[in-house]
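Notes from the pairing session

We agreed to fold both candidates in a single pass and log them together. This is the raw record for the first candidate, unedited. Please don't reformat it; downstream parsing expects exactly this layout.

Candidate A
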Amino acid sequence: MVTLDAITFDLDDTLWDNQGVMLKTEEGHYRWLLEALAAWRATRQEAPLALGYEAGVADYLQRRQQWASQVPERRGDFTWLRLRALEAQLEANGLPRSAALLWASAAMNEFHRLRVQVTPHPEAAGLLAALAERYRLAAITNGNIHLKRQPLAAHFPVAIAAGELLAPKPDPKPFLTALERLNTVPQRAMHVGDSWLEDVLPAQKLGMHAAWVAERGDQALPARVHRIAHVKELPTLIEWLEKRA
């Protein structure tokens, strides 16, 4: 008999579709920075920086990649990488360091404002509320969404930002940290996520059950792994597991 007492969830592309909000966030926070910075310099009667959108975005990405290479332990801490890249870019384009720090921080505030504007699947809130009556719940994400500000935050008394642990999934550390905080063991827990490499395999290797959220997938599944097409199918899967001899 399978007995669960805890369920951990990935967030992006598991409880909501993430592609659209990330595209809006990526473009929006950088355009905001350029426009706000130009207006600020105009009030000071200073010439605009020679920093256009297309070239600026390309340089911003390159700088993030450089920081990830130079400081590999921070490779999963996307907020830190973005902040360092923006600071360096603005300094390189003529801003004093104090101003570069201020504007990079302001741009990341705008990033996080846009980043939390996700729309959970219609079933998500009710599903989590019902599960919370029987199981302890946690969120484990590699994304840099502000966990306490995301729309489903109230359902997760435990929330793990894996990048901030300097151990992004598939590292086992965020899973083990969540299990410790939930006061349970892998054999009594299930992880729910859309990524085969970052969610399913590390959870399964630890001894957890795993619900792989994937519309398609015809490969043979290892022990304790089950595929569902949508997170709304999770209660049916759990009921089947707990009745299974």
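Candidate B (folded immediately after A)
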Amino acid sequence: MNKKVLFVLTSHDELGNTGLKTGFWSEELAAPYYALADKGIDIVLASPKGGQPPIDPKSEDPSFQTETTKRMDKDTALLAKLKNTIPLTDIIMDDYDAVFYPGGHGPLWDLAESATSQQLIIEFYTAKKPVAFVCHAPGVLKDVKINGEYLVNGKNVTGFTNTEEEAVQLTNVVPFLVEDMLIKNGGYYSKIADWSPYAVVDGLLITGQNPASSEKVAEELLKLLA
């Protein structure tokens, strides 16, 4: 498939005021990356600051490793791409067929507030190109509006659940809860059992519930690209 997809990663590495580090969740980059790249999709990585985006140290814990994260750890080409992500301000939407946002807690701080990111999502969506988000990444849609309406308003969506946030004990650390925000902005929010793979497609908008959903989101994106 001769298509080009932009992946947008966080540049934020501080977990609120906890003194702990955060970033993007490694599985949420690795699983979709290979699901698309193995089908011949050209993938470009970008982030607000450019350069090496922070990886959430928790996602590198042995208990969270998957076949795709192990593959990423040995993939010198992908690791080189990661070291040199393109600054978001340099991205031109016309160069891509879709955009994908991996999660991790980092995006709740920087990408959710980024006017550049918001504008990019609007450009992709209005150009009738798929926009995909997994886990905490639907949080970046918080302030995205088209013609004065929230993009998620009236759309079927999912994202990291309040109970999943509670389970990782960060309910009082994150700037907002993804589930609450999606409902508040008029989304028709649905979820299944915590930590189970679940993706929702509404037209060009694809959302996934948690890290386990990242490959599912990529599969739905592939269908739209085809």
